[in-house]
Design goal:
Blueprint: H1 3-14, H2 35-40, H3 49-57, E1 64-73, H4 78-88, H5 92-109, E2 117-120, H6 125-131, H7 135-147, E3 151-152, E4 156-158, H8 170-177, E5 181-183, E6 191-199, H9 203-214, E7 219-228
Parallel strand pairs: 1-7, 2-3, 2-6, 6-7
Antiparallel strand pairs: 4-5
Helix pairs in contact: 4-5, 5-7
Length: 230
């Protein structure tokens, strides 16, 4: 065993690192998510029922070419644990890791969208300042690192602070985010990926598409780390 490996194991013994999904101890070169969880996290299979439901999520918006979610979100499940760590515990590496894993797997499956740019769904500046970062930026950055598609967290802005979407009906969610996004800078691309953490009704993402359409974008690919069943 190399001295570097011995020191690594010694540090793990004194300062144990835990998997953010299952909270078991990380060993060796494992980072953020243990090997077992990386393999067993609940993927949205390309030919499964959840994937079929995704295809109809934005059926009324023909500019949205495709919709893909990486993982299935269930209450108290591992995906919820990971997103909780990302959004509320300050573990930014979770976002980079999940985004990278998603990008790797989409590229390997041949399903990577032919987009020119990844745009992350923005937080209001008040919430971003409180949290210290936008979790969707980290997901987009990780996806970009895996695929080479550039990303931007500055094109879209959220013009007003809105109440949380949690617990709202589909109609209430649409009203809550209606007209809330605007395009801050000139955009010279026509096909974009919009990246977010969790897809529920899709109201927020539809508003992002609406703002970007006004700015001249023509083709949209929706990518989220998780799909919430409700």
């Amino acid at each position: 065993m190399r001295i570097k490996d011995i020191l690594h194991d010694f540090v793990d013994l004194i300062f144990p690192r835990n998997c953010e999904a299952c909270h078991s101890g990380l060993i060796g070169n494992e980072e953020i998510i243990c090997t077992f969880c990386r393999i067993s996290l609940p993927r949205i299979e390309a030919d499964g029922l959840n994937s079929e439901a995704l295809n109809f999520k934005f059926a009324g918006t023909p500019e949205i070419i495709s919709t893909h979610s990486f993982l299935l979100f269930t209450k108290k499940g591992k995906v919820q644990q990971l997103l909780h760590a990302l959004k509320y515990k300050g573990v930014k590496e979770v976002g980079l890791t999940l985004g990278f894993m998603f990008g790797q797997e989409m590229a390997a499956s041949g399903m990577l969208p032919p987009a020119e740019l990844i745009i992350s769904v923005p937080l209001h500046e008040k919430k971003k300042k409180s949290r210290g970062y936008n979790q969707s930026d980290l997901l987009a950055e990780g996806f970009s690192n895996a695929t080479g598609i550039p990303w931007s967290g500055t094109i879209l802005s959220r013009t007003r602070h809105t109440a949380t979407q949690t617990g709202k009906s589909k109609t209430e969610r649409r009203e809550n985010v209606k007209g809330v996004f605007s395009v801050k800078t000139d955009i010279k691309v026509q096909s974009v990926i919009i990246m977010d953490d969790v897809l529920t009704t899709g109201a927020t993402l539809e508003e992002c598409v609406s703002a970007l359409k006004t700015a001249g974008c023509k083709k949209f690919y929706i990518l989220t780390i998780a799909l919430a069943k409700h």
